[in-house]
Amino acid sequence: MELEKAVQRWVVDISQWNPSPHEFSYSMSFLPQHEHSSITRYVKSEDRKRAIVSRLLQYALVNQVLGIPFHEILINRTVEGKPYLGEGYTMALESEFPNFNFNTSHHGDYVAIASEPICIVGLDIVTHSVPVKETIPEFIQNFSSYFTRMEWDNIVNAGNHDNMLSEFYRYWCVKEAFVKAIGNGVGYRLDAVEFHHTRWTDIFVKVDGQELKEWRFWLYELGKGHTVSIARGHPRFATETYKRTLKRTEFDDDEYHLGLHLPDGSFVLRTVEQLIPAACKTGEIPIHVGKEHGICQTEEKLAPTFLSETD
User: Fold this and answer.
1) pTM
2) Which of 14, 63, 197, 256 is the one with CA 20 to 30 A from 308?
3) Which residues pair with 125 in a beta bridge?
């Protein structure tokens, strides 16, 4: 199905990329000049790496899916920071991908991007960091106001402290993916968003007590203590500023449900070298996310090139 071409899930492990200053500048040279300040404003090298990889993922994905040369791609951001494809070349794409959009996330070792052809998409990565200056219950308590009573009960009754922390991060991850999908910022009332699940499968959401039927969610473990969540939903739920960037916000039931029920693609592990236009595009490693246990598994029959993670 042609629509499935626009369902992309890419991830980069930045712990495996340690560029020299020259290599970093070379990678940045493939991005438009206006993107450079959003990278160089960071002082720490790890933050700069996350920023540049996030931008490279966006341009490389648009280039691969839509066939637009790097130098012709225009990516803008809403006032809330949601990236979107600029005007000028999208009209011809509407019949193929009526509502092409994408979202990025980075945390810890991983930077990722997800795209959709019809539904709006949100993506979030969280690292299961263990607090060092306070106990796990004290750390979690700082965020209690962001959860509903049901969610909070599930977190504090998850088992031992490590289980409580993991459950906390899972709820946080799916909430952030939903908020990012609709294009909202940090001001959104997370305590109005309540997630239900069966061992983190068959996930659905209620907002102010009303179930949103036109949404789907996935939660996966990336490995190395990282969780990633994807939200896929109806464009009518987007913020007004984000709606203005979308080509369509209304679909008939058949067309919308075609997009809603597209297969959720497996994450593909890429290197930074594969994101720049001059790089060879072969040798990518499919990461198959275990649907039953939510575990990413890398195929063993891999090309040897991979022996060498604001969105």
Assistant:
1) 0.88
2) 63
3) 228
